[in-house]
Amino acid sequence: MSGRGIGVAILDSGIAPHPDLAGRIVASVDFTTGGSGASLVPPADPGGHGTHVAGLVAGDGTASGGAYAGVAPGANLVDVRVITSTGATTVSTLIAGMQWVLANRSTYNIRVVNLSAGAPVTTSYSNDPLAAAVEVLVFAGITVVVSAGNDGPKRSSITTPGSDPYVITVGAIDDNGTATVADDAIASWSSQGPTAIDGLAKPDVVAPGRKIVSLRSPGSTLDQELPDRVVAGLNPLAPAYFRLSGTSMAAPTVTGVVALMLERTPTLSPAQVKQHLMGTAAPLAYGSLYTTGSGLVSAVAAVSAADQSAAAAAAPVSAGFAGDVYPFLFGQPLVWRDLGFNGGVDSNGVPWSGVNWSDITWDSITWANISWDSFNWSTVSWQDMTWESISWEDITWDALTIKEKTKGRKVRKGWEALD
Predict the structure, then answer these.
(1) Catalytic residue among 13, 18, 45, 49
(2) Could you say which DSSP state residue 363 is in?
């Protein structure tokens, strides 16, 4: 398994051309210029963060003789640039990038999205526009992997949209640069659960995230600010690699595993992918439900896990998803996962065969039995939704700073440097 044929969208600062990715950056689109972002552009990464993330997913180790290969070296990458060279973005920019992924998922076989970024939770995920946005991707059949955040060891520091119950939220461990788990420990800065306000158990899983070597974007912001992180490959005169730490590095490791899983079993739904990852993760003696989740991701176990139906998630979809997506799905055939679910009736006692669009409810019972992959998602136009009208204060992200949308305040803090 190498992830061959699987499209992985990297929502980040871009992906620079690199020998380890030759021929596999199949599309690049830039939403950071203030334009429509609808046209394809040459691959580039003025920030440096996205290239490092992309290499962890799909680098093949060409420039290092195989020493620094990613998890899925055969996967195709889709560069969705939503973060500027200074590490800034807006909610509307992120949502525009996600909408592009939804609209182009069939063209590039986009099956998984990596979002190594997050903002402090200030509201329930049910009322969070980013949570609603990632749920659209998940229910449209795209697995979304999100970093947990770098605000540990403080409890309830998981960032959004990692606080959403439908994404795969990844925390970081420090593997001390060895193959054995005997000397591993939770990275002190890895954000911990339960999630603020909703109290959900997060992160879902963990992966190595400290002092991780991946691809370098020469001349980028991080390259210039952190010259001590440069790592040589086969050519010491032109170092091709870079060392970074953070849950931003742990998440793409899991994204690569997801690509391997989908190559082996293309029919897996996002819910099944998440169930397999969590069900096969190795429990860690030093962790807990709110620090290491289900444990350390195991690529071999996750890829070889027997296919099975995924149970319905315990938490309801967000109010934003239910309210804003409803008009676009209204009238399409309703398909139920299980006609015997909840005793054969919905929360109002109506038999599933008798539920229609006029009496459907979005509570924790009715929505859970809907077969979401039965819908035609091409009708969903995010520009007509209300999410982008939300005004947010300045927010410091996992690996960037987001500017408040309506006032456009100056960035307070750029890329975060952990080690």
Answers:
(1) 49
(2) S
Tell me: the pLDDT tens digits for 143-189?
Answer: 999 999 999 999 999 999 999 999 999 999 999 988 888 899 999 99
Alpha-helix runs per DSSP H in 105-188: 129-139
Has 12 been annotated as catalytic?
Answer: yes
Hey, what are 28's tokens? 């690049």
Domain count, the chain: 2
Active site residue 18: no
Q: Among this protein's residues, is 398 annotated catalytic?
A: no
- Beta strands at 185-186 and 168-174: parallel, antiparallel or unpaired: antiparallel
Q: 2, 12, 28, 164: which is the annotated catalytic residue?
A: 12
Same domain, yes or no: 276 and 353: no
Pair 275, 334 in one domain: no
List strand residue ranges (DSSP E) for 165-220, in order. Answer: 168-174, 185-186, 205-208, 212-215
Specify whether 90 is located in the same domain as 50: yes
pTM passes above 0.85: yes
Task: Identify the active-site residue in 157, 163, 217, 248.
Answer: 248
Count Cβ atoms below 10 Å from residue 185 Cβ, excluding itself. Answer: 14
364 and 272 in one domain? no
- Segments forming the whole domain that contains residue 334: 328-380
pLDDT tens digit sequence for 243-264: 999 999 999 999 999 999 999 9
